Amino acid sequence: MSVPLGHRFDNAVWRALAALPLPTRRRLGYLLFVQRPLSLRAPRLFSEKVNWRIVYDRRPILGEMCDKLRAKELAVERVPGLRVPRVLWSGTDAGELAAVPDLPDHWVLKPNHRTAMVHFGAGRPDPQWLRERTRGWVEDVLGQRQGEWGYSQARHLIFAEELLGSPGQRPDDYKVFCFDGRPFMIQHDQGRSNRRHGRHFMTPDWQLLPVASGHGDPHAPVRPPAFDALLDAAVRLSNGLDFVRVDFYLIDDEVVFGELTAYPGGGLEAWQPRSFDRELGSQWTLPEQ
């Protein structure tokens, strides 16, 4: 799987800005990607508050949220009985996965300490090929380059977990934006494994929000039968947290935990309409520093 052009461009930008102080780095990145000035002194937009968190918030819970293996533990601690994808292996040498007994026919490989990297594997892999495929994954320092501090606190590991759903067809994502235990919006992604990727933003009572996504199907998705159980899990996982996006899957009408997201879109999403960025931001009361 090659690295998309957009990711290569993003990485080049952050490498070029790496020597600058973090507030300056974030202001320039925001101006480039969101195309508006960033206010860190009096943030009001949701995207501004994500950047405020990146620059100033150093609470240990953010490090736990960004450590994907630890987030799985938090999910089970807060919601006993919640299904969490089974971890098949973790370590720093991906070639070790080839020696795992009873490795399933299909599996997924991810870094523990960063986002936007995933490999879908099948069968027993060639150890050397897998080492080449994951070259740089352990050393990658998203937290240092983009300033997303939580990832700098996560353990530098690679892990393999069970594949959810059918091979070659990624299950729908349900990403719940929660403010102190209160779900406000659900981002629903479907068809991400093909060109018919659809993205919709829904209210907790499953009404379509007028938020442009730039992804496909304009028709609202059908409300899933297990949606109430999914929302209940989101409430319990987000209780006491000023903001977290809780990501789930639904597999055969069973709620499955995905991850906890502290910095949606890296704080660089240009919400459309722009007024929605303000509405979303109004839900978030930042912690006192």
CATH hierarchy, class of the largest domain: Alpha Beta
Q: Which CATH architecture of the largest domain? A: 2-Layer Sandwich
Q: What kind of sheet is the major sheet?
A: 5 strands, antiparallel
Task: Kindly give the count of domains.
Answer: 2
- CATH topology tier name of the largest domain: D-amino Acid Aminotransferase, Chain A, domain 1
Spell out the blueprint of helices and strands:
Elements: H1 5-17, H2 22-33, H3 46-56, H4 60-66, H5 68-78, E1 87-91, E2 106-111, E3 119-122, H6 127-133, H7 142-145, H8 149-153, E4 158-162, E5 173-179, E6 182-190, E7 198-202, H9 227-238, E8 244-251, E9 254-261, H10 274-282
Antiparallel strand pairs: 1-4, 2-3, 2-4, 5-6, 5-8, 6-7, 8-9
Helix pairs in contact: 3-10
Account of the 3D structure:
With 289 residues, the protein is an alpha+beta fold. It folds into 2 domains: 34-81 and 170-289, D-amino Acid Aminotransferase, Chain A, domain 1 (2-Layer Sandwich), CATH 3.30.470; 86-163. 31% of the residues lie in helices and 20% in strands. It has helices spanning 5-17, 22-33, 46-56, 60-66, 68-78, 127-133, 142-145, 149-153, 227-238, 274-282; strands at residues 87-91, 106-111, 119-122, 158-162, 173-179, 182-190, 198-202, 244-251, 254-261. The strands form 2 sheets. Strands 7-6-5-8-9 form a 5-stranded antiparallel sheet. A 4-stranded antiparallel sheet has the order 1-4-2-3, with no helix packed on it. α3 (46-56) crosses α10 (274-282). The longest helix is centred in the first third of the chain and has 13 residues, at 5-17. The protein is globular.
